[in-house]
């Protein structure tokens, strides 16, 4: 048996984009992504908007059918045939708590839907008891069960989504920017709840987010993504203290520091130029058009992730 719960190998997700009446070109949203997650571990996935983070999560769960690559879960490769039976073990918490919940269903029916689909109760009484237990796990009161989603705040709605994901006792949850639509004070509560649930149930997370402070707080390891490729993976503390890739250095330099004295001394690394279009990617390294260290080699070939020690993987020729 592998030591990893989830193994993603050379995952690719291309979307055909029409450029004429009959002509299409591929938009390479995810282009050869590989990583592993151990049982009970949290891997943070960060990068700017449009880099393919959400697409990675959705392709792993086959919400989008991958173009190429392998996803191995619990020693078993995921295919169209066995995906339904594996759904119980892999769930997703969506970014927008407003649009991911059915406005016509009560909270009890929203949380109970996975139980209905997988027939995980013997009678109505057992179903109701399970739902109330799930609601208590995520900090909702039993009297909330008969209400509708529009009657709740953003933080409460996200808790309903988390309870729905937990209903089938999954081993792995993709958390797709679960706190980005919430107020800062509510973000802290939801992040702490994710940690409590992990401690209690031993569930593993792929935690997708923009906020590097949130990701550093919750993650065991962090992967940095740029234009469909992972450019650096390392332990959360090591990536924060000793980043190597020029893009990671720039991302971390933009993290706000609450101490004005330290913030004043800190040097921002501002990237020149714009993010290239995924429809018209530069040859070689995708980051070279914005990188101060780019050489002729970067224009000719794409760097692969190489181990710099302690499992710190970096895709760069010059750092």
From TrEMBL:
Query: Does the record's keyword annotation contain Transport?
Result: yes
Q: Where are the transmembrane segments?
A: none
Which family is it part of? Belongs to the ABC transporter superfamily.
* Top-level taxon in the UniProt lineage: Bacteria
GO biological process assignments: peptide transport; transmembrane transport
**What name does the UniProt record give this protein?**
Dipeptide ABC transporter ATP-binding protein
**A matching Pfam family:** ABC_tran
Q: Which residues form the ABC transporter domain?
A: 6-252
- Gene3D superfamilies reported in the protein's UniProt record: P-loop containing nucleotide triphosphate hydrolases
Q: Write out the entry's keywords from A to Z.
A: ATP-binding, Nucleotide-binding, Transport
- This protein's record includes keyword Transport: yes
Against InterPro entries, the record matches this protein to: AAA+_ATPase, ABC_transp_ATP-bind, ABC_transporter-like_ATP-bd, ABC_transporter-like_CS, Oligopep_ABC_C, P-loop_NTPase
Annotated Gene Ontology MF terms?
A: ATP binding; ATP hydrolysis activity
């Amino acid at each position: 048996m592998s030591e990893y719960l989830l193994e993603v190998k050379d995952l690719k997700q291309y979307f055909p984009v029409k450029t004429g009446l009959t002509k299409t070109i591929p938009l390479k949203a995810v282009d050869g992504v590989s990583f592993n997650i151990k049982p009970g571990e949290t891997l943070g996935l960060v990068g700017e908007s449009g880099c393919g983070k959400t697409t990675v999560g959705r392709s792993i769960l086959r919400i989008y059918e991958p173009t190429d690559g392998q996803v191995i879960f619990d020693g078993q490769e995921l295919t169209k045939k066995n995906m339904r039976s594996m759904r119980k073990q892999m769930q997703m918490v969506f970014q927008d708590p407003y649009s991911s919940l059915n406005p016509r269903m009560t909270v009890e029916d929203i949380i109970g839907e996975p139980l209905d689909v997988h027939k995980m109760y013997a009678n109505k009484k057992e179903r109701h008891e399970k739902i109330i237990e799930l609601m208590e796990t995520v900090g909702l009161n039993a009297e909330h069960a008969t209400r509708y989603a529009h009657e709740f705040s953003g933080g409460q709605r996200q808790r309903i989504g988390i309870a729905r994901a937990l209903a089938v006792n999954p081993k792995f949850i993709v958390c797709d920017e679960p706190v980005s639509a919430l107020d800062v004070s509510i973000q802290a509560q939801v992040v702490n709840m994710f940690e409590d649930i992990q401690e209690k149930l031993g569930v593993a997370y792929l935690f997708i987010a923009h906020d590097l402070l949130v990701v550093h707080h919750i993650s065991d390891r962090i992967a940095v993504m740029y234009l469909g490729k992972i450019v650096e993976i390392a332990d959360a503390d090591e990536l924060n203290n000793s980043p190597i890739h020029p893009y990671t250095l720039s991302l971390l330099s933009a993290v706000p520091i609450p101490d004005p004295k330290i913030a004043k001394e800190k040097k921002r690394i501002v990237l020149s130029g714009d993010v290239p279009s995924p429809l018209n990617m530069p040859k070689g390294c995708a980051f070279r058009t914005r990188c101060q260290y780019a050489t002729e080699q970067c224009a000719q070939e794409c760097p692969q992730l190489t181990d710099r020690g302690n499992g710190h993987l970096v895709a760069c020729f010059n750092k």
